[in-house]
Amino acid sequence: MIRPDEIVALVGHDGGPARMARELAAGHAGRVGYVPAGRRVFASLTVDENLRVGAYRRPKDGRLERVYARFPRLRERAAQPAGTLSGGEQQLLVIARALIGEPDLLILDDPSAGLAPPAVQAVADALRGLTVVIADEKLTLARAAADRIVLIEHDAVVLDLPKAQALEDERLGPGYLTGSSSTA
User: Between 114 and 96, where is the model more confident?
Assistant: First the structure.
């Protein structure tokens, strides 16, 4: 169960967090925004055009302006081809495109892959005030953004604690800092 405005990180290896996130999405009664792994932008379209793809049903109801208010960096880059953005900016763009649909639950699959620390912080800042599930192998974004961390092993929840308590648990050791399953 996820409370409104809560950010929950599902952490684990072998695809367990992504499977559990999809189950949460399937059982959610409201609108769900899903951001798959891989920063899938329309590279030849501008930032603004990428966002308008997400707003195609209601292009003039203020959604685009609300998203630009949450992501000022994207407003600065509105005329730039999305394929030329940094990895962090591309991740912000795909999150922003999902938010155009005004979901009441946002699911992010492997959102911190390949992001430098400043980009991770920018993503974390953009998520504040939203209801979010982060499915990831690493604790990178969880440390910066999560209110609660859930550890999944063999498709079962083995830890579900507020972030500060969870980070003290030895089960969230080196394998979750690096994303390597060899130590987990």
Answer: 96
- CA 3 to mean position of chain CA atoms: 16
CB 99 within 8 A of CB 70: yes
Give the pLDDT mean for 91-97.
92
Give the pTM: 0.87
- Least Cα distance to 127 among 153, 155, 156, 98 occurs for 98
Residue 11 has pLDDT above 60, yes or no: yes
Mean pLDDT of 148-172: 94
Among 1-5, 46-50, 54-58, 175-179, the minimum mean pLDDT is found in 175-179
The span from the CA of 16 to the CA of 27, in Å, is: 17
Question: Sheet holding 7-12: strands in order across?
Answer: 32-35, 105-109, 132-136, 7-12, 148-153, 156-162
Q: Please state, in angstroms and as integers, the Cα–Cα distance from residue 33 to each residue in 81, 108, 129, following that order.
A: 23, 8, 15
Spatial distance between the Cα atoms of 11 and 150, rounded to a whole number of angstroms: 6
What is the DSSP-derived secondary structure letter of residue 82?
G
Q: How far is CA 174 from the centre of its chain?
A: 22
- 177 near 164, Cβ under 8 Å? no
